[in-house]
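for the writeup, i need someone to sanity check this before i put it in the appendix. the sequnce is what the collaborator sent (i think, or maybe the updated version? ugh). structure was predicted straight from it, no edits. if anything looks off just tell me and ill rerun, i have time this weekend
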Amino acid sequence: MKLLAPLRLPRFRRLYTAQIVANVGDGLDYLAIITLVVFLWDRGAGSLSALALALALPLVIGAPFFGAVADRFEPRVVMVGANVLRGLAFAGIAMSAGFAQVLLLVAVTALGTGLFNTAQVRFIRSQVSDDLLLSANALRSTTERMLTGMAGPALAAGLIGLYGPRTTLVVTAVCFAVSGLLVARVGRVDGKGDSAARAKRQPLHQRVVVGFAHVWSLPPLRLVVFGMAGAYLITAMFDVMLPLWYREIGGGPAFIGIAMTCLGAGGAVGAVLTAQFGDRFNLITVMAGAAMVIGVLVGGMGAVGVFGASVQTALWFPAIVVIGAAAATAIVGYSTLVQRLTPEHMMGRVAAITGAALTVPTVLGPALAPLLTLFTGIDGLFILCGSGLLAIGAFIALRSRRYSALVRPEPAADRDDGNESDGGPRSTAASTNSAKTERGTDG
């Protein structure tokens, strides 16, 4: 199976093992913190909003710093430090006596997450050849969905029931400590070439500006980032209203649980299919198609309510599976395109910037949705969101054809596999593809 092909690379395999352990920790922490804050301390909606901001704001505000650090220092060192930081922060939350301490430490965990993710992307960009990038990102996405979104919360519920939320948070801290030890074994990545050397000599603010300049100066990357940001904003608006829509169609808690499982299962299917077949096509067009599929289904969900049509609730489950699959396709495609269109020595900065471009709309969407719903109702909001996704997808699809040559991977037959079996540097072909995107923005 093509999804598993990157595991043949020893360094990626070690990093992936460390990611599995960290994903388990990620799956445990949210439910444990919510149990501590909401059920033991009896805090309300305002506290939940504050927690959400404490998680999101550091990822947005700190993005330029994350990227500069990930590009300036060896990725392994950054990832180990980030996991140690997260482990200490979760241990602190387990011992905290008040909500203010929890908020501060949650923000620290977000800083650790931002640093780890950007360094991880740079490491993968340096070790995985172009033709395997899509599979590597699909494998990571599938694992994260399965562990963080499904298995982790189930395990957390069991641990909380048996030992309480504080002990569960200690287990979370141990997961990140173990992940840090595993990351320490992945191997070094040294900056290569004159561009990397110049980047290390630049002041911090100049390195950050160069990262923004690269995103803006490369048309296919600019198209993908702005298009995906718009799609995320729309998705966040209807996603936050999904529980109310479930209630309106007669779905109870059991329906919501099955729907969440369908989304997760669809995401796994979408990631596998994208890894297997995505590179046979223009990946930007594939992403655009995924957005349009979600738009049609979400718009249809709203139209059923507006026109008073009667649909058995169980018939919505296949649609939810397709939405999950299309969302996974878009996310995996986005990650891969960002990596293919960015030189290795700039990968940390560009990964942080393009990641923040998705975090901002994720914060804004839930705030805008209730305001729009006052005028449109839930069904009207779904029609509006579906139409917006259709429009974004169509626009990207129309413009994607001119960039087909830039976004396709170099053929596997053109690779220099001399060092790949022992986790060595990326292939010559992949480096050539990187050179096509540099455009003189490395200062």
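Residues 347-400 form the longest helix (54 residues). The CA atoms of residues 80 and 180 lie 5 Å apart.
thx in advance!!
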